[in-house]
Design a protein that fits this description.
Layout lengths: L2 E8 L3 H11 L2 E8 L2 E7 L6 H21 L2 E8 L3
Helix pairs in contact: 1-2
Length: 83
């Protein structure tokens, strides 16, 4: 079973927080939720090297940056792999 966490962040912090979560390496899925609706969902491979995950997620990170510029606050929901 996976552990779930949520973070409320301002628009300017969204991209930095998502990058930080991806670098952590134990994240299975990241969702951006705004006003109760899932805007972007990023599934990440379990055990994928951080560099590969970063390269594959680059287009999604660009989309997240564009989204972050439009919102004042959103929630980041994270599903982590149990250790």
């Amino acid at each position: 079973m996976a552990e779930k966490e949520s973070f409320k962040v301002s628009g300017g912090q969204v991209l930095d927080k998502v990058k930080q979560l991806i670098r952590a390496g134990n994240v299975r899925r990241v969702r951006l939720v705004h006003n109760g609706r899932t805007i972007i969902e990023i599934p990440l491979s379990i055990g994928a090297p951080v560099a590969v995950a970063g390269i594959l997620a680059a287009p999604l990170l660009a989309a997240i940056g564009a989204f972050a510029a439009l919102v004042t606050e959103c929630t980041i929901e994270v599903e982590k792999v149990e250790k």
